[in-house]
Amino acid sequence: MSDFHKLTVASVDALTPNSVVLTFDIPAALATTFSYKAGQYITIKHSINGQEVRRAYSISSAPSSGKLTVGIKKVEDGTFSVYANEEIKAGDVLEVMPPEGRFTFESNQETQNIAAFAAGSGITPIMSIAQTVLEANNDNTFVLVYGNKKPEETMYHAQIVALQEKYGERFYVQFVYSKVSEPDCLFGRIETSTVNLILKNKFKGVSFNDFYLCGPEAMINTVSDTLKSNGVSEANIHFELFTTSDTEDTVAENLDGKTKIEVLVDDETFSFEMDQKTLVLDAVLKQDIDAPYSCQGGVCSSCIARVTEGKAEMVKNQILTDSEVAEGLILTCQAHPTTSTLKVDYDDV
């Protein structure tokens, strides 16, 4: 199920003092495998100091570019992000899983007005989405609100300016800086007043089709709540978390039994017994079963599986819709079995 392919890094380019963009060389034989929709991500697997590390990174290039690029911001005490910024060079080979993810844009050929709110490295998938929206229809418009500490720490700043020059009034950008005051930029963070400025002032007469939010959980919650208070349907608000707050595992506190679990992965069935206090994905990986996963924190969608028998309860869920949960889908990295038997299917998702 974890279908990784070895890809060569074609180039490594600095974006800011603490971020780089990696471009991968995609062999002709893998062109279809690595085709993607705007907004999707890839999972990179690599061994660092003898330990396997997996990380999910959003694709920043547009599907029309014929390239596959990801932006990686160095995180303090990070493992792969530090390695990517300091060690990776052109010619290196990394194991990469084909693109996946639900935070996507697909043109419907009609005129669309799209708005996005991003902070920090949350701009990465938005770059792909923005370019795709603007290319899809000559009447499409894209409004971007982008928050950072200061200009020199703003990922893709030059590329965003280039998009402004290319698309003129069809592409509007509102930069927001929390550490410095700049002409024509807002000072502070993206908050309720920022959203209202866009909806009720600068673009008062514009009817937006969809909103894309990407960044820290607090920002996403603020923007989403403000949009809904302005009458925007939840169905038109799409978000992807790059970081999330820790959630206390209250589910495990009330469990103290064993579960006989059956796992279907790549048409192969595995059976074993696990503690209910253990998360399903953790138990599966302990059995050396090659189940798909990436973040293990409930912010990507790599580990989704379907419950076909028994029940499981998730500690948190910020990805699956209510209808998907109702039909049996779970994030296995967040789920505890709550019945004596449980069957999960990674193939039927």
Give an account of the 3D structure.
- The protein has 349 residues and is an alpha/beta fold.
- Helix content is 21%, strand content 35%.
- The protein is built from 8 helices and 19 strands.
- The chain has helices spanning 80-86, 123-136, 157-167, 192-202, 217-229, 250-253, 280-286, 322-326, and strands spanning 5-16, 19-25, 41-48, 51-58, 68-73, 93-100, 113-119, 141-148, 171-177, 186-187, 210-216, 237-243, 258-265, 268-275, 304-309, 312-314, 329-331, 335-337, 341-345.
- The strands form 4 sheets. Strands 4-3-6-1-2-5 form a 6-stranded antiparallel sheet, covered by helices on one side. A 6-stranded parallel sheet has the order 10-9-8-7-11-12, with helices on both faces. Strands 14-13-19-15-17 form a 5-stranded mixed sheet.
- Strand 13 (258-265) and strand 14 form a beta hairpin.
- The longest helix is centred in the middle third of the chain and has 14 residues, at 123-136.
- Pfam families: FAD_binding_6 (PF00970), Fer2 (PF00111), NAD_binding_1 (PF00175).
Which features would summarize this protein structure in a list?
alpha/beta; 6-stranded parallel beta sheet; 21% helix; 349 residues; 8 helices; globular
Structural category: alpha/beta
Taken in chain order, the helices and strands follow as EEEEEHEEHEHEEHEHEHEEHEEHEEE
Radius of gyration: 21 Å
Poorly predicted sequence stretches spanning 5 or more consecutive residues: none
The average pLDDT value, as a whole number, equals: 94
Side-by-side strand order of the widest sheet = 4-3-6-1-2-5
* Beginning-to-end CA distance, first to last residue: 12 Å
Share of residues in helices: 10-25%
Please state the overall shape, judged from the principal axes of the Cα atoms.
globular
Most strands sheet: 6 strands, antiparallel
